């Protein structure tokens, strides 16, 4: 059989956790050759480089080094540079047979656009997720990527329903499970063996974890101040560890809120953490308070209450089956849910089926099987 050349694209922090297990799973197929292409959308060492080391992920074969910027400018740079990579072909010669993208960041969109314009098929891992909120850039990225991809690899049943409703052919849809949970399950023992809790003077099950970065929560001073008021209040009863995203730290400083947060009893402020230290913190927490999509999934897999500071979610299974509750940016609702966690009345959830640590193997099998079928048709 002719070798299948895959261009596997990563660019931002969440992409690495999804691509790492897939690259390992593809090693079981000698007929598949992978080229790992890092767009450089996240370039800070804490947000990018450390993840390759901690995930046991090989270094990129090609780095585009696009850096940060406004959505349009960043997407354009990725599109231009990735198009040149595709036209040149994989190292060692030949042509790319398929581009594999993951998630919903600008790198996902730009790589898909470049491939589609050159007639190269695209496989989208984590296809079909919809928040139905087009004010979120990620939602635009998801819709456009799915409209151009011909292989849609879906993490939860709602994603299948969304894609069918949008008119995608059923034979192009594959319910494979959540590949990010593969990474969590593989690295959880290693993460929990670290001394992270001791270093920040926390005890298992006796603290919460906070992450905030979405514009709706951190760009308006009144909204951010009201949320922080609740967090400062609760931290007196339950210590809260807050790894601060660089963007959020800049907003806190600009709005004059950072010093107040630093002085609050029970608030433990940390810089952005590597994957293992962060997983050590989240996996042993009493509660997670976040506006992150990935943490909604991880908390559900871990069975830990998750208060999601968003009015909607593209991952509804984490609410319907899992441990997440949508509290929007409502301080009253946040306070109520935190009290329910503290008094033991918060709802119980369960881990969805196919979130079993084997999603990457299912994806690799689909990619290899499809390539074999295409090769037979070409012959």
Instruction: Supply the CATH architecture of the largest domain.
Output: 3-Layer(aba) Sandwich
Oligomer state equals single chain
Beginning-to-end CA distance, first to last residue: 10 Å
At the fourth CATH level, what is the homologous superfamily of the largest domain? Glycogen Phosphorylase B
Q: Give average pLDDT, whole number.
A: 94
Topology as a string of helices (H) and strands (E): EHEHEHEHEHEHEHHEHHEHHEHEHEHEHH
Helical amount among residues, as a percent range?
A: 40-55%
Radius of gyration: 21 Å
| Count of the separate structural domains | 2
- Identify the strand order in the major beta sheet: 3-2-1-4-5-6-7
User: Low-confidence spans: pLDDT under 50, at least 5 residues?
Assistant: none
Write down the CATH class of the largest domain.
Alpha Beta
Shape assignment = globular
CATH topology of the largest domain: Rossmann fold
Structural class determined from secondary elements: alpha/beta
Short overview:
With 379 residues, this protein is an alpha/beta fold. 47% of the residues lie in helices and 15% in strands. It has 17 helices and 13 strands.
Q: How would you describe this structure to a colleague?
A:
The structure is a single chain. By secondary structure, this protein is an alpha/beta fold. It has 2 domains: 4-177 and 356-378, 3-Layer(aba) Sandwich (Rossmann fold); 186-343, Glycogen Phosphorylase B (Rossmann fold), CATH 3.40.50. It has 17 helices and 13 strands. The strands form 2 sheets. The chain has a 7-stranded parallel β-sheet with strand order 3-2-1-4-5-6-7, with helices on both faces. A 6-stranded parallel β-sheet has the order 10-9-8-11-12-13, with helices on both faces. Helix 1 (13-26) links the parallel strand 1 (4-10) and strand 2.
């Amino acid at each position: 059989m002719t070798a299948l050349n895959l261009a596997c694209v990563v660019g931002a922090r969440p992409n690495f956790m999804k691509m790492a297990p897939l690259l390992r799973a593809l090693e079981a197929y000698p007929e598949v050759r992978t080229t790992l292409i890092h767009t450089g959308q996240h370039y800070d060492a804490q947000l990018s480089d450390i993840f390759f080391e901690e995930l046991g992920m090989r270094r990129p074969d090609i780095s585009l080094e696009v850096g940060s910027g406004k959505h349009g400018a960043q997407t354009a740079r990725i599109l231009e540079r990735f198009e040149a990579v595709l036209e040149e072909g994989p190292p060692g010669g030949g042509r790319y047979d398929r581009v594999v993208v993951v998630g919903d960041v600008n790198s996902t969109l730009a790589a898909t656009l470049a491939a589609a314009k050159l007639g190269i098929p695209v496989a989208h891992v984590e296809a079909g997720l919809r928040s139905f909120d087009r004010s979120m850039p990620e939602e635009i990225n998801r819709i456009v990527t799915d409209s151009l991809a011909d292989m849609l690899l879906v993490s939860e049943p709602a994603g299948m329903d969304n894609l069918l409703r949008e008119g995608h052919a059923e034979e192009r849809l594959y319910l494979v499970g959540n590949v990010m949970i593969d990474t969590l399950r593989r690295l959880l023992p290693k993460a929990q063996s670290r001394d992270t809790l001791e270093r920040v003077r926390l005890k298992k099950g006796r603290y919460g974890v906070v992450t905030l970065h979405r514009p709706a929560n951190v760009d308006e001073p009144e909204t951010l101040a009201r949320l922080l008021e609740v967090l400062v209040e609760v931290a007196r009863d339950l210590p809260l560890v807050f790894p601060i995203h660089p963007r959020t730290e800049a907003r806190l400083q600009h709005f004059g809120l950072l010093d107040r947060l630093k002085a609050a009893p029970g608030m433990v402020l940390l810089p952005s953490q590597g994957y293992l230290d962060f997983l050590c913190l989240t996996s042993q927490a009493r509660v997670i308070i976040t506006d992150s999509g990935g943490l909604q999934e991880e908390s559900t897999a871990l069975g830990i209450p998750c208060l999601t500071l968003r009015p909607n979610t593209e991952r509804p299974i984490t609410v319907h089956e899992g441990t997440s509750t949508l509290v929007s940016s409502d301080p009253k609702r946040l306070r109520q849910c935190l009290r329910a966690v503290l008094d033991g009345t918060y709802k119980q959830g369960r881990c969805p089926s196919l979130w079993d640590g084997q999603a990457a193997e299912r994806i690799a099998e689909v990619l290899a099987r499809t390539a074999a079928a295409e090769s037979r048709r070409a012959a």
